Amino acid sequence: MQSKAVMSEIKRTAASEMVRQRNETTGLYRHPRLREDLIRIILIACASISILTTIGIVAVLLTESSRFFTRLAFTDTNRSLVERIEAEATLIQITLEGENLPVGSIIKVGEEDLLIEAAPQPGSFQVKRGVEGTTAEAHPEGAAVGLARPVTLGEFLTGTRWQPEIGHFGILPLVNSTLLTSFLAMLVAGPIGLAVAIYLSEYASARVRSVIKPILEVLAGIPTVVYGYFALTFMTTLLRAIFNRGDIELVGTYNMASAGLVMGLMIVPTISSISEDALSAVPRSLREASYGLGATRLETVVRVLLPAALSGILAAFILGISRAVGETMIVAIAAGAGPVRNLTLNPLEAGETMTGHIARISTGDVSFGSLQYNSIFAIGLTLFVITLLLNLGSNWVRRRFREVYA
Amino acid sequence: MTTASPTVQSALETMTKADRQLRKRNARARRWSAIYLGACIFALIGLILLFGTVLNNMFGVVVKTYAVPPSQLSPNQALENLSEAELGAILSDYFSKQNRGIQRARVLVRDNLLGKNIDPARLSGEPISSLFAGRDYPPEVAELKFSELTVPQLIQLLESSISQSQLYQMVVKDVLQPRIPQSWTLLEGIFNWNRIETEAQAKYPGEAIMWHSWFSWAFVSSELTSDPSTTGLRMAIVGTVYILILTVLISIPLGIGAAIYLEEYAKHSRFTALLETVIRNLAGVPSIIYGMLGLALFVRALGDDAGITNGRVFGITDTNGRTILSASLTMSLLILPVIIINSQEAIRAVPASLREASYGIGATRWQTVWRTVLPAGLPGILTGVILSLARAVGETAPLLVVGGLTFLTVDPNSIFSKFSVIPIQIFSWTSEPNPQFKNVAAAAIITLLGILLTLNAAAIILRQRYSKKLRGA
């Protein structure tokens, strides 16, 4: 038994030695796979950058927004210093009316943060100077006193004012403008894009197609800043000429209507090209069956093709909304800048969208770590979540409702 | 006249009814086909209006005023035809009469002949013969110092070194100082010439009104100023070109590498499926989000904190993280998904027989990719790359967030310079209250569209060559 095992071992060794010798002489064995493996690793690294980018986007938005929700915001208390205080003073007098200042809270005077340690008498406070990384300094009589509080998620999502400078952090006005301009855009782009798709896929001759297709490609290729210019110089002028009669000024220089309508023109190619693909994917046999029953072209389109291509068309619409929500330059130029105080549904008024606000705040030199710097990331996160949901929804609709023809 | 039997009667009635209904249905079908065509025409009208608006603002009528009228300087001859000596005489005459004219003449000579950044100690200490070593200068000033020169001597230095057309430009810029206080659009000029004339006569008596193109070589080549009649696009064009080249260098290897991996190497695994999903979703992320990624990652973390993108580790100290490098990195991430998707399609289009032949003669996977797949797919890949670059050139929002400036005083000269790009200039000029900046913005738009057109034309030519080659094969 044992000698048999030894024999087979010897045989095996001899065989592998022979193979090794043959490989060495022919050069086959000497091909190291090192280079191939290295290249493979480099290529995987290239492909992984996309995953890293995604992780980077999510990480950046989450960390900066979490800083927004943990840092202190200050609201005006309507109270002020009764007398001038020096940098060393720890007992300060504050006027009586206005909001309550509990012990242990942080107040802001000028650029300095102060911690209230005790309140011996009403209006008189024992404070620790220069907390939260600020420096103690002298403040004049009558300087306003702000009260620190954290920004809550509930306030962020349901508040109806967005003015970070004075302590209002409700994202709703920005979302409202975004939805309003996107709605207007889809009002233009939805019907027009679908009609163009139907015309291209069912009606147009090859010659007409060769005219319309390039038009759509050019529309899709024009930079959005040019659309913004068009919205401000042409569409706004047009709307003002239509709606402003005499002294009544219904339409200002900046309004959501012009931005929304021009955005619609921009989105037409997106919707038409995806819808057209969906319509062309409907098998010929369905059309022929419909015509065979004596249906007109319109009836074939409405009763047969549109239901069959519904998933693709819906997906196109959702993608169009996603593009409108994420579009920046048109709204930054034409829709208006500056804080919106009321939630308006009137598209002729000015309104700042989420993207428009991010663009405006970051154009000025935002200092890193300031409240405004963190706040645009909270808005960016909201925007990212909305567009991601829309994009995923578009894919889901396309898969879920796709008619499969064998 | 015979009456038809009731059955025939009802049959006839049914037929007419059907006929009427058919006619109605056909009419409806025709109406809707007109509506569908109308939608296409709407898109066309939108496009025409867009270009029309830009052109309408780019050409127009202007009032031009001069600090010194040209007819006063040269009554008999057009100014651009004067000789160097005559132009030099105008300059030295003008600077001699002006208050602080000698300082302006010195600045003119220094900026044009010695460079703005010349060491002030050299300028005040060395004689002309060493400052202008190896160049032409009048012999009598050789031993003088720069600050001892008189106005005519300074102008002589200019005359001996620069051409007649440059001298003419100086006369225009420093002596004539043309200003455009008011402008009208092309359509206003065509239809309301008389009204413009009376309006101009009332406001600017004696000044000429003329047709004017805001887009010109002077506009493309001069530096940014805050005055719409003299401002130019040069710094933004330089910035755009810098960022474009750097983006190409970063994103093409990464994008094509990723596409090769996905098409030629990857097996159907969970990792590959995740990659495909991630890339498709990244393509749908709004561009401004990429800007925020760039702001936090490249400008702040890698720039101001780590000192890489602002050049601190390379010994450059005068910039913050808002540099051309940060902008290019951001742009690369932005167009990477598009490049990957386009390249994947081009690689997929390479016939499988080519690969099989390559493997058949014993090539390794990389040899097959490098010698067979890439050369065959390259035109298609390049077409996709060029189209995604065209997208990058027009992007504004991410660069705005990363810190593109709306005003620059010097050309960017390294990847660590502050920057502006053409779209950001368009944005900033469009937002200016002064209406003439709308004209300037229109001229910048034409420049941008010209660049995009060139890129797209290159892509189309590549595509056509490619399809010819495939047909020939």
Write the layout of secondary structure elements.
The complex is a heterodimer of chains A (406) and B (473).
Chain A: H1 2-26, H2 34-70, E1 72-80, E2 91-93, E3 106-109, E4 112-121, E5 124-131, E6 144-150, H3 153-158, E7 162-163, E8 168-169, H4 172-203, H5 206-221, H6 224-243, H7 256-280, H8 284-292, H9 297-308, H10 310-326, H11 329-334, H12 354-363, H13 371-400
Chain B: H1 6-58, E1 59-65, H2 70-73, H3 84-97, H4 101-114, H5 120-125, H6 128-131, H7 151-161, H8 164-176, E2 179-185, H9 186-191, H10 193-203, E3 208-213, H11 217-221, H12 234-265, H13 270-282, H14 287-305, H15 324-348, H16 352-360, H17 365-394, H18 397-402, H19 422-430, H20 436-472
Antiparallel strand pairs in B: 1-2, 1-3
Quick overview of this protein structure:
Chain A has about 400 residues and is α+β, with helices and mostly antiparallel strands.
Give structural attributes.
heterodimer; A: 406 residues; alpha+beta; Elongation Factor Tu (Ef-tu), domain 3; MetI-like fold; 3 domains; six-stranded antiparallel beta sheet; two-stranded antiparallel sheet; 13 helices; B: 473 residues; mainly alpha; 2 domains; three-stranded antiparallel beta sheet
